[in-house]
Amino acid sequence: MKAVKFLEYYKVRLQEYKEEGKSNYLSYQGTYRNLTDFFGRANPTFDQIDMKFYKDFQWHLELKDLGMNTIWNQWKNIKCVLNTAYLLRLHNNTAYHQFKAKQERAINIFLTVDELGKIYKIDLHNHPGLDRTRYLFIVGSFTGLRYQDWSRVSKKLIKDGVLRIQSHKTNEVSLIPCHRLVIEILDKYNGEMPTVSSNQKTNDALKLIAKAARLNQVYEIVSTQGGKRKAIPDKYKKWELITTHTARRSLCTNLILGGANPYEVMKISGHSNIESLSKYISLNELDVVENLKKLSLFSDKKETGKEKIKSRQKWINYLDYPPGDFATGKVLQIIRPNINSLDLL
Q1: What predicted TM-score, i.e. pTM, was given to this entire model?
Q2: How big, in percent rounded to 5, are the helix, strand and coil portions of the chain?
Q3: What residue spans define the domains of the chain?
Q4: For the purposes of burial, counting CB atoms within 10 Å of the CB of 111, is it exposed (0-12), middle (13-18) or buried (19 or more)?
Q5: What separation in angstroms does the CA of 233 have from each of 5, 66, 224?
Q6: What is the DSSP string of 142-190?
Q7: Which backbone phi and psi does 326 adopt, to 5 degrees?
Q8: CATH 3.40.50.620 fits 113-287, yes or no
Q9: Which of 84, 157, 291, 322 is most deeply buried (CB count within 10 A of its CB)?
Q10: pLDDT in tens, 271-285
Q11: Sign of CA dihedral 139, 145, 148, 154
């Protein structure tokens, strides 16, 4: 039996991703094009995907003037395909474990509740496609659902004001309090959301919608292109940076800003850990400063004599409890707002 080679296997995986409707299929396809451009007519074996290949292909990508994060994504895709092939025992080459790539922090925007309100209110009745995309995005922004699940929102899945839906990607079940705008949009579409376009077409439409809503806040992005750090940062308006991911990120960030416990947000968003959730929370410096200023530590208010006595008695009472009660959480209770009481929901 003839041994399968690297590009041959990559092409097989690419076809499988296309048939499965994998959300990042186009990303893998772009990496395949870069690989075939690099190898030309050569048909490398898995053993030839070594450190020499790593250095040469890195240089090839930099000569194409690609951004650092784009290059990082190429290596992520390649390593994923190589790892799957390794698990299937198609090769025993582990050199890919040493393929390292740097990643720059990207500006991941979110929309405030006021900005979402602007998008909801703009007149798009002469543009039915944009109108439909706008409402799907609003539903995504107040449910935190992934783009693939926007069309699945239905009044049939809502009971006592709570949406119960199972994620298409992870099979996780989320219970999400329904915002009034979600109910209004469902009423508009007779209880069933319309289907979404492709991710790319939806992203293009969202930029037009956000531009019409005049989301013109300027962001500066200092990036590395072709292996060189740009001397002058690129400038983008907020509407240029909006994508389908912005909806999910907006709910997570707005809930945290509203005082929700991160573990509660995870129950809605379906994230399995705090680290994954943190990638969807976009707190900029001003948000952080405003929240810190609200803490008593930074308050100018001085404690009165009675408040000092009360505070001191509180700590004395804590000392009266046996050590085990601290571990069981009987003493230091975390007081937080109920997620249903937030103005956002």
Answers
A1: 0.69
A2: 55, 10, 35
A3: 6-98, 113-287, 301-341
A4: buried
A5: 42, 16, 10
A6: HH---GGGGGG-BGGGEETTEEEEE-TTT--EEEEEPPHHHHHHHHHTT
A7: -65, -40
A8: no
A9: 157
A10: 666 666 666 565 554
A11: negative
Helix (H) or strand (E) holding 225: strand 224-225
The whole-angstrom separation of Cα 271 and Cα 77 is: 22
Binned at pLDDT 50, 70 and 90, residue 330 comes out as: very low
∠ at Cα 167 (161, 172), nearest 5°? 90
Instruction: Please provide the distance, in angstroms rounded to a whole number, between the alpha carbons at the two ends of the chain.
Output: 60
**Paired tokens of 148:** 């693939």
Number of Cβ within 10 Å of residue 229's Cβ equals 10
For residue range 152-210, list pLDDT tens digits in order.
999 999 999 999 998 887 788 888 889 999 999 999 999 999 999 988 899 999 999 99
Residue 323 token pair: 């050590």
Distances (CA, A) of 286 to 40, 257, 282: 50, 12, 11
For 59-116, write each residue's pLDDT tens digit. 999 999 999 999 999 999 999 999 999 999 999 999 999 999 888 877 778 999 999 9
Q: How far from 329 is each of 219, 318, 323, 333, CA to CA, in Å?
A: 43, 12, 10, 6
The Cα–Cα gap between 253 and 260 comes to: 10
Q: How far apart are CA 57 and CA 53, in angstroms?
A: 6
Total length of the chain? 345
Q: DSSP string spanning 62-100?
A: HHTT-BHHHHHHHHHHHHHHHHHHHHTTS----GGGG--
For residue 306, the one-letter residue type is K
Write out pLDDT tens, residues 107-163.
Answer: 778 999 999 999 999 999 999 999 999 999 999 999 989 899 999 999 999 999 999
Rounded (10°) angle between helices 128-143 and 180-188:
150
pLDDT (mean) for 213-225: 88
Q: Check residue 310 and give its pLDDT.
A: 53
> How would you classify residue 154: left for phi > 0, otherwise alpha for psi between -120 and 50, otherwise beta?
beta
